[in-house]
Specification:
With 919 residues, this protein is of the alpha/beta class. 45% of the residues lie in helices and 16% in strands. Helix 5 crosses helix 6, helix 19 packs across helix 20 and helix 21 packs antiparallel against helix 28. Glutamate-gated receptor that probably acts as non-selective cation channel.
């Protein structure tokens, strides 16, 4: 009995403990403090700060008035100004850590955010910034830093896509020299590099009041001397307006300039409208970005009551909307924090009370024990705010980043398009494109027309030649041969030639002046290497190169070429000899193979016709000698359609008809080819083209400095030991005259323009084969050089108006050799041109012979069956077969047999009738 009592007591105690534990847990989960404190650090008097202050105050009122959010807990916001000072911001953050603050909104400045984030990490207090856009504020480095606005990483991507959209390649960046400016421009540099663009010049402006109008003027004077005319401005509003004012004073807001401002300008305009007209005049034509916030009922309602909240003293910008939503992010996270049993409690950090920090009195600061849970709830936020959907992506940034592209014009601005991370530039709002598949192709990128500085609608070129007195260094090859293309005037720095005239004529067509000077390249003793010249352009030694520079693949990888101004390609030049019309000229129309096959078919057709006609045609019978003569005579006489023998069999006539058609074609072709040989001078060369050169072991010449050497080795596969470098046309002629076996070359491979000039006074050589490469000559410039594009347009204009041809005729037309109509190695007729005819004739002969022998063998079987009782030896059967083949068959036998068969049938019918009458 006692044992049962003890068991009962133990069971009651366990149940009571379980009930108390559950009851306590439930009590803790459902208990919410009456007040929860959050702090805010930002600059009250700044453009963003004064808007954010009103927005956050209103957000706190709306949250406390909404019983469904914190459900009985009052949200209390304590705001302190940092005055854009990192020190004051850190002090303010430390003060919040002493007052049981569970989250801090801010700071506004990226500089302050870098400092305070370290404090937030140590004390585990979430730090939510609605305005710090520095892309280096990473959640990996600062786990308790939460960016509730868009990062400048996305804004700089938008700027780079605008630059690419308008086909600009270089920009100048003017930025505030702090964490916000430097890191933003660093992100811009990376974004432009991904588009094959770059920042050509960076100007950092020190923050603080000590930088005035004089210093800004000094900076802009340097910028005006630069080549690029696309300027990206990433500063604070006060400095930005000063820069625009000075730029207008210096004439830098005129036609040809492009100003792109980041979202600092749109925020200032939104919060300060209307802006004085004199200030707006300094910004005409500027393109700016603004954080995009979708239109919604809540946003319109908040905007409508904004005037009452501020007394219409300033407007609402996008950062104010993000500040409002930031307070709601904290409220929703705190609500979930309490639902999950979170308790607002703090604990001291033992490290702050150690001997080293005792004199600083830091022990008043405490660690927020629920900071990690609250932070997790912040990251899981998902609701619709004034700025659209509030949700963080895997990278801990707000999803669907987007910007408006605005154009400052008149007394305000207009939206010319949108940029979003998914669709790029578009004239449609980003929310209309979210449901569509991502498409970033260039054809789908679009913006409305922009009115640029100077009130022009034509897209600015984006660059000019710098006004700092620097001349473009244009390299000119110092050639020792073919000086008609390019050469230097003795005793001067001037050059002349075909290429020089083309370049000068093209430059004269440009709508702007091009300051340049020619710089000779080469030692003057041999032609320079054009591959080396192109490499020096890529290395920045020269600003460009003009001359007979071939556009080949390995060169286009490191420099840009203009439109080709001369067609080029590799050809083979070899000696030739004239073919006289001697006694055996009549054999030249046909190749030996064609002669042999034609003769064989004459004999074959004669034999086939003889076989088919032998049994029934007396003209194909007789003694063996006569039959052989008949075969030869018949086959050869068909060549002239003069055969006397008539064919009696159907098969023989078919074969003869097809053969006569073949003979007709052969005769016509032979006559035409022989006429050409006898009337046109024929030239011949042992070299047929590049393929015959490759198969031989002969030596091949090429021009010093030409790309032909590497092409023959790398692409054709000719050993380098077979190549001979030659420098002048005289060296060409001498090497060709000697020949490969006597220390010269069998042929020369060079570009067609050189060869045409060489052959104009060297009449013993000719081009053999066909041109085996297709390329052209162009002017070379560094990668992405805008001058290459403009000169290409000018070269096309020269070609269309005929000036290019006139320059060509001036320098390159020579008439030293007679331009007769001689042909080099006129192709003789080969078997491949007639194999189809011979195939048809051969098939016809085979079918006829096959049918004939089928008839013979059928006759042979009938005879052998009737003589079954006679001698059936093998020799006897062969004799029977041969006798059948050789026997004379009268073609009238069939007709006689039919008549006899008809008479016998009539007699039989008569006898049958008489017998019936008798009966």
């Amino acid at each position: 009995m006692g044992v049962h009592k003890w068991r009962l007591v133990a069971s009651l105690l366990l149940n009571l403990g379980f009930f108390l534990t559950n009851g306590l847990s439930t009590h803790n989960a459902s208990t919410r403090p009456p007040i929860v404190n959050i702090g805010a650090i930002f600059t009250f008097e700044s453009t963003i700060g004064k808007v954010a202050k009103v927005a956050m105050e209103q957000a706190v009122k709306d949250i406390n008035a909404n019983s469904t959010v914190l459900r009985g807990t009052e949200l209390r916001l304590d705001m302190r100004s940092s005055n854009c000072s990192g020190f004051l911001g850190m002090v303010g953050a430390l003060q919040f850590m002493e007052s049981d603050t569970i989250a801090i909104i801010g700071p506004q400045s990226s500089v302050v955010a870098h400092i305070i984030s370290h404090v937030a990490n140590e004390l585990q207090v979430p730090l939510l910034s609605f305005a710090a856009t520095d892309p280096t504020l990473s959640n990996l480095q600062f786990p308790y830093f939460v960016r509730t606005t868009q990062s400048d990483l996305h804004q700089m991507n938008a700027v780079s896509e605008i630059v690419e959209f308008y086909s600009w390649r270089e920009v100048i960046a003017i930025f505030i020299d702090d964490d916000y400016g430097r890191n933003g421009v660093l992100a811009l540099d990376d974004a432009l590099a991904a588009k094959r663009c770059r920042i050509s010049y960076k100007v950092g402006i020190p923050p603080g009041p000590g930088f005035g109008r004089t210093e800004v003027m000094d900076i802009l004077v340097k910028v005006a001397l630069m080549e690029s005319r696309v300027i990206v401005l990433h500063v604070y509003p006060e400095m930005g307006f000063l820069i625009f004012s000075v730029a207008r004073y210096l004439g830098m807001m005129a036609d040809g300039y492009v100003w792109i401002a980041t979202d600092w300008l749109s925020s200032a305009l939104d919060s300060s409208m209307p802006i004085p007209s004199e200030k707006m005049e300094t910004m005409q034509g500027v393109v700016a970005l603004r954080q995009h916030t979708p239109d919604s009922v809540a946003k319109r309602a908040f905007s409508s009551k904004w005037g009452k909240l501020t007394g219409s003293s300033f407007g609402l910008n996008s950062y104010g909307l993000y500040a409002y939503d930031t307070v709601w992010i904290i409220a929703h996270a705190i609500d979930k924090f309490f639902d999950q049993g979170g308790i607002v409690s703090f604990s001291n950090d033992s490290r702050l009370s150690s001997d080293g920090f005792a004199d600083l009195h830091l022990d008043a600061m405490s660690i927020f024990n629920g900071g990690k849970l609250l932070l997790d709830n912040i990251w899981r936020s998902d609701f619709d705010g004034l700025t659209g959907r509030i949700k963080f992506g895997p990278d801990r940034n707000l999803i669907n980043p987007a910007y408006d592209v605005i154009n400052i014009i008149g007394t305000g601005f207009r939206t010319v398009g949108y940029w979003s991370n998914g669709s790029g530039l578009s004239t449609l709002t980003p929310e209309n494109l979210h449901s569509k598949p991502v498409n970033r192709s260039g054809a789908d990128q679009a913006l409305h027309s922009v009115i640029w500085p100077g009130e022009v609608v034509t897209k600015p070129r984006g660059w000019v030649f710098p006004n700092n007195g620097k001349l473009l260094k244009i390299a000119v090859p110092l050639r020792v041969s073919y000086k008609e293309f390019v050469s230097q005037l003795p005793g001067t720095n001037m050059s002349k030639g075909f290429c020089i005239d083309v370049f000068v004529s093209a430059v004269n067509l440009l709508p702007y002046a091009v300051p340049y000077q020619f710089v000779p390249f080469g030692n003057g003793k041999e032609n320079p290497s054009y591959t080396e010249l192109v490499s020096l352009i890529a290395a920045g030694v020269f600003d460009g190169a003009i001359g007979d520079i071939a556009i080949v693949t390995n060169r286009t990888k490191i420099v840009d070429f203009t439109q080709p101004y001369a067609a080029s390609g590799l050809v083979v030049v070899a000696p030739f000899k004239k073919m006289n019309t001697g006694a055996w000229a009549f054999l030249r129309p046909f190749s030996p193979t064609l002669w042999a096959v034609t003769a064989a078919f004459f004999l074959v057709v004669g034999i086939v016709v003889w076989i088919l006609e032998h049994r029934i045609n007396d003209e194909f019978r007789g003694t063996p000698k006569r039959q052989i003569i008949t075969i030869l005579w018949f086959s050869l006489s068909t060549l002239f359609f003069a055969h006397r023998e008539n064919t009696a069999s159907t098969l023989g006539r078919i074969v003869l008809l097809i053969w006569l058609f073949v003979v007709l074609i052969i005769n016509s072709s032979y006559t035409a080819s022989l006429t050409s040989i006898l009337t046109v001078q024929q030239l011949t060369s042992p070299i047929k083209g590049i393929n015959s050169l490759k198969k031989s072991n002969d030596r091949i010449g090429y021009q010093v400095g030409s790309f032909a050497e590497r092409y023959l080795v790398d692409e054709i596969g000719i050993p380098e030991s077979r190549l001979v470098a030659l420098g002048t046309p005289d060296a060409y002629a001498e090497a060709l005259r000697k020949g490969s076996k006597n220390g010269g070359v069998a042929a020369i491979v060079d570009e067609r323009p050189y060869i045409e000039l060489f052959l104009s006074n060297q009449c013993k050589f000719r081009v053999v084969g066909t041109e085996f490469t297709k390329s052209g000559w162009g002017f070379a410039f560094p990668r992405d050089s805008p001058l290459a594009v403009d000169l290409s347009t000018a070269i096309l204009s020269l070609s269309e108006n005929g000036d290019l041809q006139r320059i060509h005729d001036k320098w390159l037309i020579r008439s030293g050799c007679s331009t007769d109509n001689s042909e080099l190695e006129s192709d003789r007729l080969h078997l491949k041109s007639f194999w189809g005819l011979f195939l048809i004739c051969g098939i016809a002969c085979f079918i006829a012979i096959f049918i004939y022998f089928c008839q013979v063998f059928r006759r042979f079987r009938n005879v052998a069956r009737s003589a079954v009782d006679s001698d059936g030896s093998r020799s006897r059967r062969i004799q029977t077969l041969l006798s059948i083949i050789d026997e004379k068959k009268d073609p009238r036998d069939k007709k006689r047999q039919k008549v006899e068969r008809s008479i016998s049938n009539d007699s039989a019918d008569c006898e049958t009738g008489n017998d019936s009458e008798r009966r």
